[in-house]
Design goal:
Blueprint: E1 15-19, E2 24-30, E3 38-44, H1 74-101, H2 107-131, E4 142-144, E5 147-149
Antiparallel strand pairs: 1-2, 2-3, 4-5
Helix pairs in contact: 1-2
Length: 150
């Protein structure tokens, strides 16, 4: 889920502001956080279609965006990196253990597990590369109720 997407509840009332030919719409709704304000975001167009039995809706590929960017501070970046590394280690250990358990099933299953381990390593490395900044950012102080808070 991208930062400009909204999660809708069944029966929730929204206003379609714009629809795109990629299967996405921009909608507005009363803010769930701040009553009286309007929240806007992207939702898949199939959200507005009555479900058909036996037909499974899939998330359309995003080709448009509201242009929202998310800035991550260094503390959050470090937490994400540590969490990603823990996830990588756990999934990797699980896959290697599964590969050992199915060793009797043949080399084909073992190869699939090994490729999955490599893919997990690659994905986590890619995420960590995107989290890296070229230059560490200096902490900034913000004023909260007339007092400094970090």
């Amino acid at each position: 889920m991208l930062p400009d997407e909204l999660v809708l509840s069944l029966g929730e009332k929204v206003t379609v502001v714009r629809s795109f030919d990629d299967g996405w719409c921009i909608v507005g709704r009363d803010s769930v956080v701040t009553p009286g304000e309007i929240e806007m975001g992207a939702v898949p167009a199939w959200s507005f279609v009555k479900p058909v039995k036996g037909l499974k809706a899939s998330r359309p590929m995003r080709t448009t965006s509201l242009g929202v960017t998310v800035e991550i501070d260094d503390r959050l970046r470090r937490r994400l990196r540590r969490g990603g590394e823990r996830l990588r280690v756990n999934v990797r250990a699980y896959l290697l253990s599964a590969a050992d358990d199915v060793d009797a099933a043949g080399d084909k299953v073992r190869d699939l597990c090994d490729r999955a381990v490599d893919r997990v390593d690659s994905v986590v490395a890619t995420v960590n590369d995107r989290l890296d900044t070229e230059e560490p950012q200096r902490p900034q102080l913000h004023l909260v109720a007339g007092r400094e808070a970090s």
